[in-house]
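Tip: read the tokens left to right.
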């Protein structure tokens, strides 16, 4: 059997992460996303191969002794971790032994429609759910879900979950050329997110070979689309080789930009020229701008 515990890996968005794979032997997922890094597979309703909680906890205890400097313990899977039938028991057991580390789950979001699952997820420090589209047509095209899954119910359930959940709620949107890269689709996502009220929205595109023949979009396109998401902390996954246009801002332009939307440290690094960065640093020192860490990503905001 493949390893249940993997890493640690340095994740740009969540910090140093020790992973737990809840489906180490095979892909078990209720989606068959066009962009999946695993091979395409028919979506399933429930897991058929299940690892024992006892086995996971024994491996995790050993790993936590070896890797005491991690930031997060990440529940993930070759597939969808919320399909793991013993998730409640597992989360309770991890919470007993995790110490100062945070527990994170990376889920495709479909199980949020189940109130029992909302209850389980509410015991996890950071919940990251995917929301690639806000219309059923687009959702079916990109995520190719198990037959009865309905994006409108998912969105409504995300809104309910936000009301009961006290931890850090992150939504991830993965953009694929020709499917969810239209302004119209993003405006609908923006409307849904305004009501869901996540703490952070991560936008990215394909960066590993996908399961099906689909293409990434450019970082500039991600930036354009992100402008449809108003009043949210948006983190764009810049490509490593991205060389965007450097802009010059005076003090009031910097404050105005940040008042319109919190800027991530990467936004500042990649789009401010050297003089503007110096002005930004001075504003930060004068406390006219505040720094805030949201689930491991630094944002700059205006003081309230
Ligand atoms: S939800 Fe994740 S594992 Fe499942 S098909 Fe989509 S990308 Fe792959």
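Filled-in amino acids:
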């Amino acid at each position: 059997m493949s390893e249940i515990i993997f890493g640690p890996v340095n994740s740009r968005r969540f910090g140093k992460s020790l992973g737990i794979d809840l489906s180490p032997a095979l892909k078990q997922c209720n989606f068959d996303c066009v962009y999946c890094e695993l091979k395409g597979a028919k979506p399933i309703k429930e897991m058929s191969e299940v690892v024992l909680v006892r086995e996971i906890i024994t491996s995790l205890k050993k790993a936590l002794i070896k890797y005491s400097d991690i930031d997060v313990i990440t529940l993930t899977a070759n597939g969808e971790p919320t399909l793991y039938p013993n998730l409640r028991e597992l989360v309770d057991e991890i919470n007993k032994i995790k110490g100062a580390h945070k527990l994170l789950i990376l889920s495709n979001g479909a199980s949020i429609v189940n109130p029992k699952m909302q209850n389980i997820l509410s015991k996890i420090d950071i919940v990251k759910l995917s929301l690639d589209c806000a219309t059923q047509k687009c959702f079916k095209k990109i995520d190719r879900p198990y037959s009865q899954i309905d994006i409108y119910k998912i969105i409504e359930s995300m809104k309910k979950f936000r009301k009961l959940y006290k931890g850090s709620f992150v939504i991830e949107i993965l953009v694929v050329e020709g499917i969810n890269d239209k302004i119209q689709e993003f405006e609908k996502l923006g409307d849904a997110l305004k009501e869901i009220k996540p703490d952070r929205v991560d936008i990215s595109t394909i960066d590993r070979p996908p399961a099906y023949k689909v293409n990434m979009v450019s970082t500039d396109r991600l930036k354009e689309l992100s402008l449809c998401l108003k009043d949210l902390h948006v983190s764009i996954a810049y490509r490593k080789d991205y060389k965007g246009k450097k802009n010059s801002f005076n003090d009031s332009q910097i404050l105005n930009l940040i008042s319109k939307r919190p800027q991530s440290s990467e936004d500042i690094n990649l789009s401010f020229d050297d003089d503007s960065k110096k002005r930004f640093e001075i504003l930060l020192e004068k406390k006219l701008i505040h720094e805030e860490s949201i689930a491991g990503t630094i944002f700059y905001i205006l003081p309230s």
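DSSP finds ten helices and eleven strands in the chain. Residues 5-236 form a domain with the TIM Barrel fold (CATH 3.20.20.70).
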